[in-house]
Amino acid sequence: MNIQGIGASSGIGLGQAFVYESSDIEIIEDSLLSLEEEMCLFTKAIESASDDIKNLYERAKIRLGEKDAGVFQAHLMFLEDPEFTSGIEALIESGKTSTFAVKNVSDMLIAMFSSMDDDYMKERASDIKDVSDRLINILLGVNASLDSFESPVIIVAEDLTPSMTVTLDPKMVLAFITRVGGKTSHSAIMARNMGIPAVVGLGDISDIESGSVLIVNGDTGQVTLSPTSSELDDAETLRKDYLIKQNMLQAFVGKETMTQDKKRIELVCNIGSDKDIPLVQSNDGEGVGLFRSEFLYMDQESMPSEETQFKAYKAVVESISGPVIIRTLDVGGDKDIPYIKLDEEMNPFLGVRAVRLCLKDSQLFQPQLCALLRASVYGHLKIMFPMVSSLEEVHLIKAELEKAKETLRKRGDSYDSNVEIGIMIEIPSAALMADMFAKEVDFFSIGTNDLVQYTTATDRINQNVSHLYSHYHPAVLRLIKFVAEAGGRENIMVGMCGEAASDPLLIPFLIGAGLNELSVSPYKVLATRSHISTLTYEKCKEYSKEIMNLSTASQVRDYLETVALNQ
Length: 567
What we know:
Layout: E1 2-4, E2 6-9, E3 12-19, H1 35-64, H2 66-79, H3 82-93, H4 98-114, H5 119-140, E4 153-157, H6 162-166, E5 173-178, H7 186-194, E6 198-200, E7 213-217, E8 222-225, H8 229-247, E9 266-271, H9 277-282, E10 288-292, H10 294-298, H11 306-319, E11 324-327, H12 355-360, H13 362-375, E12 381-385, H14 391-411, E13 420-425, H15 428-432, H16 434-437, E14 443-446, H17 448-456, H18 474-489, E15 493-496, H19 507-513, E16 517-520, H20 525-532, H21 537-547, H22 553-565
Parallel strand pairs: 3-4, 4-5, 5-6, 9-10, 9-16, 10-11, 11-12, 12-13, 13-14, 14-15, 15-16
Antiparallel strand pairs: 1-8, 2-6, 3-7, 7-8
């Protein structure tokens, strides 16, 4: 028996079904608690949900990239939306339970958005359901995760929320199918980035039972129930053919990353914790181009000690044979840690965040610098400072680093006296002063996510101006080229750790502009290496030069698509 749905993520899944059914939960309408007690429950659930979503956002940034992780930023904004919370609070004040209030308000909003013709607005219904389900599960103490299976399965569900999808283990989830959903849903996009075959919008799936055998074709959208031996054989052939294509990338394991004319590019990985080391190793990353140290702070209820940080940094440096660039604490803006008391600011993205916060609070900065210096003797560690906008800040950073070295000398602790330091180029002032910065530091790493945001004055998580946010913007590309040339003149490494580093369309420009390091998600290492092997450095330089004559982002993209077709 075949069911036709929408092919949402390529590949063939063949295995036993696991039917996911949300728990039957009893929602009591009238509260037996006092108004203060019920309101306190709701407030704590909001806080807990906010912490969960922030962690999911950081996890998704590493696995999927910042663009696709942005759905969780939208979830945070919705969680803080007075139109949502005030409706719930009004029902609580009328004597209803917080669980009933959340369900009532969210059901009304879901129905409203689901009835709209616009696909984008319909997707907001899914976001609302994700956030409200999280709140309800927290209030009732229910665990609704899909992150542990004893053997590989094909997940069958009504729908999968972004929160569920991002926690799936591709080694244990052979595919997933859902009754509802579309090709542009968040779960579908995430599945494609994680390499999990998926079919959505199947309609009636009530005949599927856990343990039954399924064939899922993510390309055609066909799902076969209780397949015959002949159908199983055909599916296995298709699966093997698909895997052969994917396995062709394995030919690039152990190979140097270089163009056809032998231009060497260092291809490293973005990670968030020492738990991501196996991902770097299994995907043949040549090192770590960005270790987001803020994860160490987010995973704790209080400030991590110098010793805790040292052990984490040491674990990464010892396990990775190549260079490891560790970024100092980068919080503020869209990242908040409750125990680090940040002042309320009207414009936090332009406020006291990242290195500005660290320079303001030596008790925060010094333990991290000491831990980093101590770990530097165990491998090739480099220290990178985010949100630098002026030479004065670099001088202050160097003074703080010398202070940390003096502390270690007095204690008798070892450190690499020649440890390399670098800065993230993510502010236009830093890009325009790159020729001066290049005389002061050992390397640059361009953070395109913020560089695009600050250069174009576009909030990257605001859907109303998302059409203005593009790393193809000529102004952004001119800054990138200027930075690369400035670094080249001083013979320092110029890399990129932002979203654009793994964009196959943009890579020819980046190489031609003079970048010599790209830091990408571990899952994108082999595909990026394969792509680079098809390019020639001399041609890339020509492309880079031609792009400087283009005046719009659409012109740049069209030109790069033409280049890709002619490769």
